Amino acid sequence: MILILADAHDAGALWLRATLTPLVAMPLVVLTPARLVYARTIMHHMDSSGTHSCFDFGDGTSLHSSSIRGVVNRMSGAPTDHFSSAEPRERLYAASELQAFLLGWLASLPCPLLNPPAPESLAGAWHTDVVATQLAALAGLRCRPFVIDADDPPQSNSTMTGTAHFILDGKVIGPMLPARDRDALIQFAHLWGSRLVQVETCQEEGRLTFLGASSLPHYQRGGPTLVRAMAQVFAT
Amino acid sequence: MARRPSKRDQNNNGNDPESGGSLPASPPELVVVTHVESAMRASAGRFSAMSGAPTDTLATLLADHSATMRPLFGPTEERVAAFGNLSMDVAAVAEPTDLTTFYAIDAPAERLDALQSDLLAHDLVDGAYIKPGAEPAAYLNDMAPTSEEAPPATPDYVSRQGYLEAAPGGVEARWAWTQAGGRGSSIRIIDIEGAWRFTHEDLTGNQGGVVGGTMSTDIGWRNHGTAVLGEFSGDLNSFGVTGIASDAVVSAISIFGGPGSAGAINAAAARLGAGDVILIELHRPGPRFAFANRSDQRGYIAVEWWPDDFAAIRNAVNRGIIVVEAGGNGAENLDDPIYQTPAAGFPAGWTNPFRRANRDSGAIVVGAGAPPPGTHGRTHGADRSRLDFSNYGALFDTQGWGREVTTAGYGDLQGGGNEDLWYTDTFSGTSSASPIIVGVAASLQGMARARGHAVLTPAEFRNCLRSTGSPQQDEPGRPAVQRIGTRPNLRQLSTCAFGKGKEIAKELVKEGKEAFKELKDGRKETKEVRKELVKEGKEAFKELKDGRKEFKELKEFKERPDKQIKEKDKEKDVFEGGGLGGIRERIAQPTGYGADNGGTTDIEGRLAAIESAVQSLVHFIGGELRPDLSASALGTEAQGLAQGDEQAKLWKDQKDNEGF
Amino acid sequence: MILILGIPDEAPVARAIAAAEADGIGHLVFDQRDHLSANLMLTLDPIAGWRGTLSHPKGTVNLASVSGVYVRLMDERFLPDIVDLPADAPQRLRSARFHALLHDWLNVAPIRIASRPRAMLSNMSKTYQAGIIRRCGFAIPETLVTNDPDTVLAFVARCAADGDDVVYKSVSGTRSIVQIFEPADRERLSRIRWCPTQFQRKVRGHDVRVHVVGKQTFATAIRSDATDYRYARRQSADDAELTTTELPPATRATCVALSGALDLPFTGIDLRISPSGEVFCFEANPCPAYSYYESRTGAPIAAALTRWLAGEK
Questions:
Q1: Under a CB-based contact definition with an 8 Å cutoff, are residues B327 and B430 in contact?
Q2: Residue C294 pLDDT exceeds 90
């Protein structure tokens, strides 16, 4: 099966599930982080020859790592409601342990993940604005002038939405672009470090200008083309 | 645009006379390597050394020769360094190669020699060397198109591509095609040489075109590139040839028009990632005949011998990219001590990469072997014996067919006036051998991805090539000890790459079957929970479909980033006690562009949370086993620690804390 | 010039400063306790990326003149002048902004950094890091993370049948003192139900700590009876014994490969060599307290570090 790891009211994930279902040969199952974390039995085993894991749920069903053929990963954090009655030091420690466990588990899945987790975020690579801007500049995208210091932080950029481009495994999905801009986006995605990245741009001073990026894309804006490309990742 | 070689190049040490078959070499390149300590910056309007060393004499020197200097591997040194530092891959077995010290010199051809010696004398310069022009490693591929026009439909020539067949004659490509991913799906390949005919009728699919450099207009280069592509990328259809990895996406970078060979390799590496393949279809005159271009290509060697090419290859390999490199048609023994001596102007500290104990580019070096006797009615020696022109030596990892390769281009098999319909039956050289290895690599990596297996690292691929395959055979005058390696066998490579997993795979299949049964049994019970989830999802979706609501949603979405950012800060406050909290504690909960990440509200989750919350919550690993090291750097324990002094002393113990 | 960031009198930092001085390597020490009077000012150059200056009590340094940085920063929330302040105090917020910017610059500066904050994060999950360790070619101990007591007991029994103990330790970067799972621990095993916990088959063999600096390696053999030699005196009443040792070239190469894979050019790798010669790797420490090893064995790690930061190959 293909898992979509997302909260129950993650509208984007539910939209994706509906549009992806006819395009893949396997069942698509939405699994919430809560269900995962509150599983009755959790088991993750690793040694030099391999890894396998298993979750047994309260309703009697199970999830073995071998049955997962692909994951759409929208899990950005671990639920910790069940720690709330512990004293602060235990709560913080348990939250760290849980986060660490989930990172190790997700990273150990042998199937394609969109996106693989990263230490800074379970949902995939993530960078601050300062770092993202450097990556964009290095990739050849125009960036807005930016000056920053600890005493004079810039206002948060309110117009963060412009034109959306999606880069999946080195291919750009979105409006037609000149080769140079397309190459810059591909290079940016490579530097960003996720398999699927959404990049927001606008046109300024006659050039494609970087606004922001995310490993948690808004699939609807990529439309059927994006969904087809995602289906292809899971099809092999 | 390509520069025709100047009189100076052609008169190089007066070798040659043989007619026909030699292609115009790419222009010679003058490469400078600066001392890393000087931290030179010759880009973005700067010309200075960050170390403070004076650069005015260097500037004058360049101006006097009407020359300019630019970083070889990118527009600025910062960009070059970032590329090397930021994207190391798991495959890396060496520190990132320092690419920032390499510079290309643009200068009139007649000035190069004088400029080179002047530069070498300068303090800031570690190495300055002239690379002779590169040529494609095609041994006298002087086939001409037949005069008859091509028929209305090209016949199917796949049966002439013996290299696709079962071992030992072929590489077992037909078997690989029965495996998921075995045609190289999801893999990208970049070919580095001079020109290609991308409008060829059998090269239309999965094709990315020229993505760097400027194509040479010379038909010899173009035929060559077209023939190379046909071997691994020929379209899967009912006519012409079929490539070993026709599902892989192929692009090309020309060494003409600026990048040079090392720049082209690096540009390819920038576009690719772990699992992808670069093909270097070039070789270059070596020290044997004083670096002179010759039409018989004697003495030509693999390009990694030159420092900038080596660095570019090494950097690509460090990114997990498989680099397939033609071994060269110079009839040379690359183990010969002549290669231990650096060329004039190589940087101090250069060592001969042909001996991998010195240093290892990580590339797959390919030799040319004879096809099975009688292929196309001709014989070139025992099957898999070294062909007379092929270089050989310990560093050769594998061999491909160096004769009788049927593929696109040249027109001797099917010719006429339209280049797009040309096919050849006799493409040869380490040029025809290397693309076979590229096809094998792409096929294997495609299989890896299809299995959900990690792609092979370049080292793993090389190990498997060297430990499997159909062995090299003797031929009078060319014994197997003149090593060119085995001919690959994809069945054996697959076992080498994935074999260990076989036992685990069997177990997992069993587990998977059991899991599926449990799922089926549990389906009734999950239906209730699922119904709720689906209902919630349907409602959300319905809102989206509603036109008015959609507009509102878009508007809301446009505002959302601000809202999301505020929520992000709020979460941080609750979770981390107010600040970014040190390097380790920063567990980000970044927001996406479309997700609503507002907490856990599924029913089952809530129930389970309540259930768990009732128990007394102390971790199995108790507090007494978790020393608080947050402020140990200051020599004191962190505030708020409820431990006795004695215990605190015990924790300090002998060892300073580590990591945070 | 190299930049040294941290608390100057902390041993690892102090040694680095001394080594730079001894070798005549131009260096600037930034005392993290000066955080409130320091500032990092960055401007974006459209081609070269971030440029700027670091200002501190002793002056201002142009970041373009820095060739390498040794990062040994402590958790800034515990710096003495702000540790007692409430969460929303202006100084705390200012310190957070300064450190965030510093981490950002360290994450992208195209120079040698030992090590980048983003790279140091991989240590926040041992199982995550173990996957990378295994891919590089080391053996990893058999590990079980679970919330189910029965699974733990079955694992313990399986290991016992082979004559092996089981230890338990943190999955996250929060240090725990490694302990052997004893029969008495069964009583509180039910606590794992609310938080999956890591259990590991104890590998028999001797410990070797390898410090990697760029391409160089420094290996130290450790002899101790304790389960966790870092707390030897507490666990076994005897101090651990440290000696310099040589590793086979293949192991050294794998250590360097791991360092590269994690983007931790200065790292402390914990190995255990089994009696059969198999090399197990437990973790790679992103900010190693190498001074403990250097002081006992004389291994010139600080010198190697500062030279590498200054640009030596």
A1: yes
A2: yes
ipTM of the complex in this document: 0.94
Question: Which SS3 state, helix, strand or coil, does residue C285 take?
Answer: strand
A136: left (phi over 0), alpha (psi -120 to 50) or beta: alpha
CA–CA min distance C281, chain A (Å): 10
Cα(first)–Cα(last) distance of chain B, in Å?
Answer: 55
Quick check: C91 contacting B, CB < 8 Å?
Answer: no
Residue B429 has what pLDDT?
Answer: 93
CA-based max dimension of chain B? 98
d(CA B345, CA B303) in angstroms, rounded, equals 16
CB contact under 8 A, A67 and B526: no
Average pLDDT value for residue range B644-651: 37
**Coil, strand, or helix at residue B462?**
helix
Give me the domains of chain B, ranges plus CATH numbers.
29-131 (no CATH), 135-499 (3.40.50.200), 519-604 (no CATH), 618-660 (no CATH)
DSSP readout, B579-607?
S--HHHH-------SS--------HHHHH
| Predicted local distance difference test score (pLDDT) of residue A209 | 93
Per DSSP bridges, beta strands B249-254 and B277-280 are unpaired
Task: Give all domains of chain C, ordered by start, each with its CATH number.
Answer: 2-115 (no CATH), 122-138+204-286 (3.30.470.20), 143-201 (3.30.1490)
What's the gap in Å between the CA of B598 and the closest CA on chain C? 23
Q: Smallest Cβ distance to B625: which of C177, C233, C285?
A: C177
Residue B569, pLDDT above cutoff 50: no
Of B83, B515, B590, the CB nearest to A76: B590
Bridging pattern class, strands A113-114 and A142-143 = unpaired
Q: Is B282 left (phi over 0), alpha (psi -120 to 50) or beta?
A: beta
Q: How far is B298 from chain C (nearest CA, A)?
A: 36
8 Å CB contact between B269 and B319: yes
Interface test with C, best of A134, A157, A192, A205 (most C CBs within 10 A): A134
H helix or E strand, kind and range, residue B308: helix B307-318
Contacting chains of A (3 CB pairs or more, <8 Å) are B, C
Contact residues on chain A for C101, CB-CB shorter than 8 A: 130, 148-150
Give the 3-state DSSP-derived string for C141-209, with helices as H, strands as E and coil as C: CCEEEECCHHHHHHHHHHHHHCCCCEEEECCECCCCCCEECCHHHHHHHHHHHHCCEEEEECCCCEEEE
Mean of pLDDT values over B21-35: 82
CB of A215 within 8 Å of a chain B CB? The answer is yes
